[in-house]
Amino acid sequence: MKTEELEKVENANMARRSFLRYAGVGAASVGLLATAACHKNYYHDYSPTAGVDIGSGDDGILNYAYALEQLEAAFYTQVILTPYSGISDSERTLLTEIRDHEILHREFFKAALGPNAIKALTPDFRKIDFSSRSSVLGAAMAFEDLGVQAYDGAGYLISNPDYLTIAGKIVSVEARHAALIRNLIAPGNFAGSDVVDTTNSLNASTEIKAVLPIANTFLKSKVSAKNYGYTA
Amino acid sequence: MNLFNIIEEVEKVDPEVYGRLSDRRSVIKNITSFGTKVAAAALPFAVGTMFQKAYAQSGAKPTVLEILNYALTLEYLESTFYNAGSAKGTALIPAQAASYYFNQVTKDENNHVAFLTTVIKSLGGTPAAVPTFDLTAGNGSGNGPFKDVLTNYQTFLAVAQAFEDTGVRAYKGQAQYLTGESNRVVLTAALSIHAVEARHASAIRQIRGLTPWITSTATLGNDTGIALVNGNYDGEQNVIQGGVDVTTLKGANGGATSVATATAAFDEPLSMSQVLALLVGSFIVH
Questions:
Q1: CA separation for the pair A226, A224 (Å, rounded)
Q2: What are the chain B neighbours of A62 within 8 Å (beta carbons)?
Q3: The whole model's pTM is what?
Q4: In chain A, what residues touch B246 (CB-CB under 8 Å)?
């Protein structure tokens, strides 16, 4: 990507129309920015691309996690690239740290899966207004809460104890993110009744077939899990 | 938490402990070799059994009921702590902190106690007895290193944070023993509690002005500024995940990943014996 284009993207006051044109870049997150092969038509092309399937077994679950981490990493990359209006220094710092965690999670799964990793996914963030604090934090909350529920709901499908421990190392960090974002939106709502039930105080957990349809609304490349009852 | 007490107890049984081991840190690391001698005698039945089992455990897998009773014991500690704090009212906890944080957390921990008790009974087990706690970490003296825990809000916050971050680590350490379809319900429940503890930990760290996640240095896991809880955070400085040094992975700007990011992005587990060594003889009286 050309430098002047990047500068335009970084301009927080950029017009909404102009922003939409570039939103797909977030897409690309780091990989695309690094490889720099942008053609203008790319940004307007929101037609579905070939989907991927997570596969089965432990690699399937790791690929599932990899897909979700790709989505989160791309989202926060865009958040930091085009900060919402009125972002405070402390919010920018915290969201940058979260971006870095999600990028590391993504890179970790990519490295761990090696040749068995699914491809890099292209997100579709048209539903998110990156200039609006409430839109961005609302989306962040949705991604983090979904991530926690996804890990908790898929843990039992992991057979290798070491992989399960690693998933545990990540999910609690996602829960820390979720609690922060929720407190930024509404102080004291870090464990709200929409995600933590009021009788047993258990975090909700969600099965793959219920998580992916939601994740797919933010993905141009749709993710399926046919071995777990869901085809996009 | 304060490991000194338990080491003193070890000393009574094994006076040469310091002679045989180079320093207190290695005492902690090597405590398994003689832990069973100290442990069980004066402890409540369930904790004593867990302690022995944990120390005898080298590769031995705890049963589901043992894990659940261990979790219940940790929840007893947390609920006892928050109930005692809440009972002090605004003399200890500012009204806003109560409504934004402590009311929720107190309710959650009490719910976890009730839930685990029900689960243990439904599996035909006997819920562990409530141990005797000393919230000052004084092993029953009421005069431990956190002796103003119920009168000084800052101390109360510090202990709350240590409990939450340690609780996250404790649950995480047991997940590996709950694989397989037969453990699906218990694993999912444990992971669900684990996530709630992580939400609590995040929120209280925000109250204390820390990052919501544990940001370690290369040599020190503990980022709380309270040296007494170094043991609770030891290991959080780990950057090797699944055999990969994650600091070598590409970060946001295409360069390597910082230790701060690498440690914050992954929470680390604690084993049952590590957690019990942190609590028994200080917060759990024996």
A1: 6
A2: none
A3: 0.84
A4: 104, 107-108
